[in-house]
Amino acid sequence: MPFDKFTYRNYAKSLLESSNLKKIDFCEIRFQEDLIENIYFKNLNLENIYNLESKGFSVRVLLNGNWGFSSSNIITKVSILEAFSKAVNMVVGLPKGRVTLTTEDIYKDEDIQSVIINPFDTPISEKIQYIKSIQNDLLKYKNIDFSDASLVQVFEKKLYLNSSGSDIYQERTRIYPHFMLYKTIPELTTLKLNTRPVGEGYEYFKNYPFQEEIPKAAENIYEKSKAKSVKEGKYNLLIDPSNLWLTIHESIGHSTEMDRVLLYEANYAGSSFATVSGMGDLVYGSDKVNIVGDRNQKNGLASIKYDDEGVKTTQFDIIKNGVLENLQTNREIASISGMNHSNGCSFADSYSSFPLQRMPNVSLLPNESKDLKLGDMLNIMNDGIYILGDGSWSIDMQRYNFQFTGNIFYEVKSGKIIGMIKDLAYQSNTQDFWKSCIEIGGKSTYSLEGAFNCGKGQPSQVAPVSHGAPISLFENIKVLNTKNEN
Fold first, then answer.
1. Contacts of 369 by beta carbon, 8 Å cutoff, 6+ apart
2. End of a domain among 199, 226, 253?
3. Is 432 exposed, middle or buried (0-12, 13-18, 19+ CB in 10 A)?
4. Number of domains in the chain
5. Cis peptide before 209 (omega within 30 of 0)
6. The domain spanning residue 40 has which CATH number?
7. pTM (whole model) above 0.90
8. Alpha-carbon span 412 to 312, nearest angstrom
9. Among residues 120, 312, 352, 417, which one has the fewest Cβ atoms lying within 10 Å of its Cβ?
10. 270: left (phi over 0), alpha (psi -120 to 50) or beta
11. For 53-84, how does the pLDDT look when each residue is reduced to its tens digit (9 = 90+)?
């Protein structure tokens, strides 16, 4: 059945305009359809195709400071009334709870993301053949012994209405082609292609410059397999956005979620060293560090005009000139913390999921005063290590002490790349690391990276999120040899 927003809207209005709402303080209804298609290859062999079509609705009610919630995949006027009754009965008779909501503007709007090619308009046979052709091109190189490939595609539709009067319809598309290369001799060596997850259509995959990147990747995996092992010590690190995005995600994105700061996630995903009282006062990094939350960022995975509470999203400062300015909020968390408004960080990963406070696109702003490029940043660093691509990571439950690896590492002497090294992880704590940031690259070095699968909540939900950054320089960071650590 199609996503019939006209009929769904009428169903919702029949409840929202009825006398049933007199018994509760607030009500919202969210209709959601998710199309997900994942294609997996090992070498030239198609391993798996995963398809999911999920469609339904949820009703959330607020009564006497408590949330009631119910959902169904059967969308009728009767099922909506039944879900409402279940949500109300869930909280009737409970002691007064602590949930209050910020007062937000009312919106009646549609926001449909513009893409050139919806992935679900392209035949799956065509996608399979295209992935196979790329795999074939990779495996022609003797330096590549094996290759994994996957293509993840998502098309999301949401219709949101609430008892305040908001009525919002939105569509979003996301895609992630991923290729991992392996060389087995003289030891197992891995390398990822530079494709990234984006809020774009199938055109991102079709237009990606594989023919330019594949020969270079074959050279890089050979050089990486022969590279010398890093010597432990403290180094200046020049970090590419393809690596820095993950450090931003773990050490800034999660630690500045206000629900985490208020211990809502403490029993599952941990808390944060940051505090509500630290806003405007806590020195998070050097004065070079400016971090924003932005769900309007072009092609961002978390980008959308309105969040899942109908709040219009904006860009807001999280860290300004190194100082913590704001934390991420939804309507409930903002109200509990004494704030006047939510900054639009509510998200539910399916129709049946309770909306949580989730991360917006969290990004490091580039240098506005001068467009420092890679060569400029290498010269400023002089000696050190240049890091590209993400790898494994570890961080403590307060988002403070951490360790990150990468994809490719270059040794730099006198501002020149002299060769590849390997077996490297950098280690620090959040404040020391960001305070050590001594220079930020310009706009031309900025790139938007990210992930589809940020986890949070019980039951667990996943959310897509992007992190932009320019190439950035950090001084005197501890580097470990991961081979020695084993």
1. none
2. 226
3. middle
4. 2
5. no
6. 3.30.2290.10
7. yes
8. 45
9. 417
10. left
11. 999 999 999 999 999 999 999 999 999 999 99
